[in-house]
TrEMBL record:
<dbReference type="InterPro" id="IPR014036">
    <property type="entry name" value="DeoR-like_C"/>
</dbReference>
<dbReference type="Pfam" id="PF00455">
    <property type="entry name" value="DeoRC"/>
</dbReference>
<protein>
    <submittedName>
        <fullName>DeoR/GlpR family DNA-binding transcription regulator</fullName>
    </submittedName>
</protein>
<keyword id="KW-0804">Transcription</keyword>
<keyword id="KW-0678">Repressor</keyword>
<dbReference type="InterPro" id="IPR036390">
    <property type="entry name" value="WH_DNA-bd_sf"/>
</dbReference>
<dbReference type="InterPro" id="IPR050313">
    <property type="entry name" value="Carb_Metab_HTH_regulators"/>
</dbReference>
<dbReference type="InterPro" id="IPR001034">
    <property type="entry name" value="DeoR_HTH"/>
</dbReference>
<keyword id="KW-0238">DNA-binding</keyword>
<feature type="domain" description="HTH deoR-type">
    <location>
        <begin position="6"/>
        <end position="61"/>
    </location>
</feature>
<dbReference type="InterPro" id="IPR037171">
    <property type="entry name" value="NagB/RpiA_transferase-like"/>
</dbReference>
<dbReference type="GO" id="GO:0003677">
    <property type="term" value="F:DNA binding"/>
</dbReference>
<keyword id="KW-0805">Transcription regulation</keyword>
<dbReference type="Pfam" id="PF08220">
    <property type="entry name" value="HTH_DeoR"/>
</dbReference>
Length: 258
């Protein structure tokens, strides 16, 4: 089970997964000049050793009690996150007020909002605040609290109390994991409390999440899909999730089908 006993190709596949957060069969087959079937066997071996977790078309670093590094998360499903961000931005009109919480997908939304006018953006994400602050047509308000060095998230009771002062038009939230029953999860209980306050103090909640979140696990429950108004993802592969959205009146937007 020790990674030191891996063949050179398996070791390189694992290093690529650590660098990028995930690996894809087709990309690896081209990189190593081997067949996709060979790569699938390699990934199955790494997954059998619990070094990776299989997903459709590739593999991820395994889930656990800690989230993967910020830079690795940022690189996962980059194009999908960009499309999700653009779809979310289209739902938010000029001169709206909104929360934007921690996450690489919510940061993609903030990038897509830069051409809006008159927004009031309240965030506990230093990366979002830093991107948006230089645009004079946008007012950016950042929550106080403990700054996580790993990703620039502002968490803790001070951030929760700050969020509770507002009632905004929209909330853009991300999560680390979505269970088949619609439960939403994250890794840091301090961030979960902030996310719960954001959900409770927005008139319209937009959940943004790429489809890899259906294949991951996280330990701390934020809430349930039925608490959001709009769910934007690149694809929803679970029929039960579609049925849940319809039953709860959640608008499901799949950017991969556009």
């Amino acid at each position: 089970m020790n990674p030191s006993f891996l063949t050179p190709r398996l070791s390189e596949i694992l290093e690529q997964a650590k660098e990028h957060g995930r690996v894809l069969v087709d990309d690896l087959a081209e990189h190593f000049s081997v067949t996709p079937q060979t790569i699938r066997r390699d990934l199955n071996e790494l997954c059998d050793r619990r070094l990776l977790t299989r997903i459709h078309g590739g593999a991820l670093l395994p889930s656990g009690i800690e989230n993967m590094e910020y830079e690795a998360r940022r690189k996962i499903a980059l194009d999908e996150k960009r499309a999700i961000g653009q779809a979310a931005a289209r739902l938010i009109p000029d001169r709206a007020s909104l929360f934007v919480n921690i996450g690489t997908t919510t940061e993609a939304v903030s990038d897509a909002l830069l051409d809006h006018e008159g927004l009031m953006v309240i965030t506990n994400n230093i990366n979002v605040a830093n991107r948006m602050r230089v645009y004079p047509s946008l007012e950016v308000i950042i929550a106080g609290g403990v700054v996580r060095g790993s990703d620039g998230g502002v968490v803790g009771e001070a951030a929760v109390d700050f969020i509770r002062q507002f009632k905004v038009d929209y909330a853009v939230i991300g999560v680390s994991s979505i269970d088949p029953d619609g439960a939403l999860y994250d890794f840091d209980f301090r961030e979960v409390k902030v996310a719960q306050a954001i959900i409770a103090n927005a008139r319209h909640v937009i959940l943004v999440s790429d489809s890899t979140k259906f294949e991951r696990g996280a330990p701390v429950r934020i809430g349930h899909l039925s608490q959001v108004d709009t769910f934007i993802t690149d694809r929803c592969p679970l029929p039960a999730m579609r049925a849940l959205c319809e039953e709860a009146g959640v608008r499901l937007i799949e950017t991969g089908s556009q």
